[in-house]
Amino acid sequence: MGQVVHIDPLKPDRDALELIARVIRNGGVIVYPTDTIYGLGCSPANSAAVERVLEIKQRSAQKGLLLLVPGMEAVPQLCSKLPAVFQQLASRFWPGPVTFLLPGRPELSPLVRGERGLVGLRSPDSAYLRLLMEMIPGPLVSTSANLSGDRPSGGIRELAESFLTHVDLFVDGGDAAESVASTVVDASVTPPAVVRAGVWAARVREAISAL
Q1: 134 C-beta neighbours (distance < 10 Å), count
Q2: DSSP letter for each residue of 55-88
Q3: How confident is the model at residue 57, as a pLDDT?
Q4: d(CA 37, CA 27)
Q5: What is this structure's pTM?
């Protein structure tokens, strides 16, 4: 059974953050609150941990995984190409609940890039997550904490029943206020395409149509 640590995302305890960062650095898998829904996370640089996330979620390795990044400064290290349209959209919707699919650098794990060689990147509107990524240091895998095909849950009790015995650390930030995942935009195509409608989907489509 995984260890449980409690955290207030608005006023995170430094010791709790250090514990989370240490588990990630050591190749652990966590459940943790984001600014949208709860996620399953690990270091994208640790292939064994990424494989565990896919196994826990029962997700196909061909689909790739979303990564949280602190901001635009981290993107060139993960992507082989940065379309101008991505930078336009990201400047409007980051930090926030919008994920962009971009060509991933070949050194990224194929489990992260998926069969199309793309990496999904999102900069969360969460000071605690940005601080956590500074402490790791590095980006963080963030795939919704649910079995593939099931609806995400924001309830702590349900999440614990599903995942507590499968992860190394369960980060309890209370029940999630949001139960909708981020909107996903494929920025590798012209024009960009919304491939998953989530939070802010209508605003994103409007912005794309105005490009």
Answers
A1: 12
A2: HHHT--TTS--EEE-SSGGGGGGTBS---HHHHH
A3: 94
A4: 22
A5: 0.95
- Coil, strand, or helix at residue 20? helix
Q: Per-residue pLDDT tens for 125-177? A: 999 999 999 999 999 999 999 887 777 777 899 999 999 999 999 999 999 87
Token pair recorded at residue 99: 């994920």
179 phi and psi angles, rounded to 5 deg: -120, 15
Task: Indicate the average pLDDT of the chain.
Answer: 94
Q: Cα dist. 76→32, 68, 136, 152, 199 in Å? A: 26, 14, 19, 30, 25
Q: Six-digit token pair at 195?
A: 């491939």
What domains, with CATH codes, occur in the chain?
A: 3-80+98-178 (3.90.870.10)
Instruction: Give the pLDDT of residue 69.
Output: 98
Residue type at position 7: I
